[in-house]
Amino acid sequence: MKKILVTGAFGLVGSDLVVELGRKYGHDNVVLLAHETKRQVDFPLEKGDVRDKSTLAKIIKKYNVGQIYHLAGLLSVGGEKNPPLAWDININGLRNVLDLAVNHKCRLFWPSSIAVFGPTTPRDKTPQHTVLEPTTMYGVTKLAGELLCQYYFLKYGLDVRSLRYPGLIAYKAPPGDGTTEYSVHIFYGALKNKSYSCFLKKGTVLPMMFITDAVTGTIGLMEADPGKISVRTSYNFSAINFAPEELVLEIKKHMPEFKCSYKPDHRQKIADSWPKSIDDAVARKDWGWRHEYNLPRMTTVMLEKLKEKLSRMKSG
């Protein structure tokens, strides 16, 4: 079979996605691209930068790549710290991958985000087709990327597919400083210190999803019959919606001693520009998307898995 290339393989999504791709298709058939190659992994691993088109082309040719999951990118907070770099990585990197996917006839997945929405977007049950006026550089690059993907489909017939990821909650990759990642940091705070200071205020409801659902949905979209794909910008993609205090209550069911304080910072403004809930009826109709993890189930698994991870790190 032709190989699968995953860029940004050690990121929040990539860390879980490559495991499932390896399980389904065999580890030898999944090639990882990352900035550093010191990690010991049971996959072919190549060092590279998505802005380096010639290196990407050599890797695609070397492994006879037929599918690309292009996950490399700079997220919301990082994009505000360095907008030119966010544009360079998120857009110029995407254009390189789009061009190469056309040249080598690859099926391509690229993640968009709820960051494409903005203050003028309906915030409750945001529809698939709606106002897109993002106010962050990350959101601007995601909106431009969605339009680029659609253009390459219309112009070149490229089979490119995309999902607007909500906030993702995972335990394999370390949490970053993204706007929704309080929902990961809070578990570390609970297990390490029995306390956490949240950088979003109470009542900040945001669309969220457990990583297992995100990976299942991503692969499900890529495996869907092309004739069922009606959206070539990016599908709305949703699972659960909650505010920080709701997550705190779930954690306290397992750890009654856990305490959380609230000290909103600059990320509050970003969160306030995003929807509270997403209508993903088109994805559910087109290719059968269904989520499996609700808030209680996700909380239980996160506490169990992170407890094991922290214990291994301590003993190691």
Structural notes for this entry:
This protein is α/β, with parallel strands linked by helices. The protein has two domains: 194 residues, NAD(P)-binding Rossmann-like Domain (Rossmann fold, 3-Layer(aba) Sandwich), CATH 3.40.50.720; 97 residues, Alpha-Beta Complex (UDP-galactose 4-epimerase, domain 1). It is built from eleven helices and twelve strands. The strands form three sheets. A seven-stranded parallel beta sheet has the order 3-2-1-4-5-6-10, sandwiched between helices. It has a three-stranded mixed beta sheet with strand order 7-9-11. A two-stranded parallel sheet has the order 8-12. Helix 8 packs across helix 11. The model has no long low-confidence stretch (mean pLDDT 96).
Pick out its properties.
Epimerase_deHydtase; NAD(P)-bd_dom_sf; three-stranded mixed β-sheet; NAD-dependent epimerase/dehydratase; Rossmann fold; single chain; 2 domains; UDP-galactose 4-epimerase, domain 1; seven-stranded parallel β-sheet; 11 helices
What is the number of domains?
Answer: 2
Arithmetic mean pLDDT: 96
Question: Would you count the extended β strands for me?
Answer: 12
Instruction: State the CATH topology of the largest domain.
Output: Rossmann fold
Question: What structural class do helix, strand and pairing data support?
Answer: alpha/beta
Would you list the SSEs in sequence order as H and E? EHEEHEHHEHEEHEEHEEHEHHH
Largest sheet: 7 strands, parallel
Family: Belongs to the NAD(P)-dependent epimerase/dehydratase family.
GO molecular function, one term: L-threonine 3-dehydrogenase activity
Domain NAD-dependent epimerase/dehydratase: 4-224
Protein name: NAD-dependent epimerase/dehydratase
